[in-house]
Design goal:
The protein is mainly α. The protein has one domain (3-389): Glycosyltransferase, CATH 1.50.10. 51% of the residues lie in helices and 8% in strands. It has a three-stranded antiparallel β-sheet, covered by helices on one side. The chain starts with a helix and ends with a helix. 48% of the residues are buried.
């Protein structure tokens, strides 16, 4: 599966329940739902829940888990709850106990400037997968029909998600930064010969690498889901601290916004001999910015950091600057208008789906171009249909 397809699905899976009433007509809704159902059921044959580890847990499981969650909200068909519970259980039961006693899904990361071939679990992967799980768990516990059947699993899922937060917090994954805080990829991993941490564990509070914006935003979306599911303020506060950093990185460019894919969060992002561990600039893959837009919209809907003026500037960026102004064959350029990278020639920019409830033009673009039977439609299709059934 192509990485750009994974990213498109993930960015769509971050949609929130603020879709506008009567966004699509009843006939379109029926057609889309039928095509979506055939596609998502066919996609379950890949059984990512039985095999993925590390960061891939997020990129490959979360679009399907989000599709199950949104599918239930759109149809109230409990088969989607059953699929989410079954897939989540299959994923969780493959966890192993790591040296500090927490459950994890470690894998050897590819060698590179930010991973160094460590055998380790992934905060990002867990955050992305747990987000739809905790939202569905909350739905189960407030619905008597569902609670009587799956209440035990829902409580277990919420407990394990809380333990995941505790795990990464205790490992030095969170750092205070200018104006707020950031999540850091730890510098250590597991020594498989001894099943203990390697020597880099001693640098867990001072070493590591600040996650890029899209990954920070995926983690923040999980924390907002944890707050929504449990009402516990620390989850919301931690998300807010990141959103303050995110807002500071967004630079006005006339009526629009532009921001870098990655910026250093602290001294741990500098190389010992000088220079930074990563380049600073706009990423040519538009899917990453779609994830950012999802989190910014979620923060706004939670009344955190971002204002309506910020949202309007974000809408203008996507609609007036990035869009090619072709309603039937919509394409989007990079957020900075830069040259298209051949690696992402079909996705230098994307429609920012979470903004659809706030702008009629973006809504029309979505309806004219949406493909319900696609990887990118796994969550966005039932989300848009749910808005119709709620009207």
């Amino acid at each position: 599966m192509r990485r750009r397809d994974l990213i498109a699905a993930v960015s769509a899976s971050a949609l929130l329940p603020a879709a506008p009433a009567s966004m699509i007509d009843a006939a379109t809704s029926k057609d889309w739902l039928a095509r979506w159902e055939r596609y998502i059921l066919a996609s379950t044959r890949q059984r990512f829940c039985d095999k993925e580890l590390g960061e891939a847990v997020g990129w490959k499981l979360s679009p399907l888990l989000s599709g199950f969650h949104e599918g239930y909200l759109a149809s109230r068909d409990t088969k989607w709850v059953g699929l989410l519970v079954e897939w989540t259980g299959a994923w969780l039961e493959r966890g192993v106990t790591e040296p500090d006693g927490f459950l994890g899904w470690p894998i050897e990361s590819p060698d590179g400037p930010t991973s160094d071939g460590l055998f380790a679990s992934s905060l990002l992967g867990e955050a992305m997968a747990f987000r739809p799980v905790v939202l569905m768990a909350a739905e189960i516990l407030r619905t008597p029909q569902l609670e009587s059947r799956w209440g035990g699993e829902a409580r277990r899922f919420l407990d394990l998600a809380a333990r995941a937060f505790e795990k990464w917090d205790s490992r030095g994954g969170w750092r205070e930064a200018k104006g707020g805080g950031v999540w850091v990829l730890p510098p250590f991993g597991i020594d498989r010969a001894t099943n203990k941490w390697n020597d880099a564990y001693d640098q867990r509070k001072t070493g590591g690498f600040t996650h890029p914006c899209n990954k920070q935003n995926e983690i923040a979306l999980w924390l907002l889901a944890m707050f929504d599911a449990t009402g516990k303020i620390p989850y919301r506060d931690r998300a807010e601290q990141w959103f303050r950093v995110m807002r500071a990185r967004m630079k006005p460019r006339g009526e629009y916004f532009v921001w870098n894919y990655w910026e250093p969060g602290g001294p741990w992002d500098s190389k010992p001999g000088g220079g930074l561990k990563h380049w600073v600039g706009v990423h040519p893959n538009g899917g990453y910015y779609s994830i950012d837009a999802s989190a910014i919209t979620a923060a706004f809907e939670h009344k955190l950091v971002f204002t309506r003026e910020d949202l309007d500037r974000l809408i203008a960026t996507n609609r007036d600057f990035m869009w090619n102004h072709d309603m039937q064959a919509a394409k989007f350029q990079r957020i900075d208008g830069g040259r298209t990278d051949p690696r992402w020639r079909n996705s230098p920019g994307l429609l920012w789906h979470p903004l659809i409830p706030y702008d009629e033009t973006l809504r029309k673009i979505f309806i004219a171009n949406h493909k319900p039977d696609s990887w990118g439609g796994l969550a966005s299709t039932p989300w848009s249909i749910r808005s119709q059934t709620a009207s």
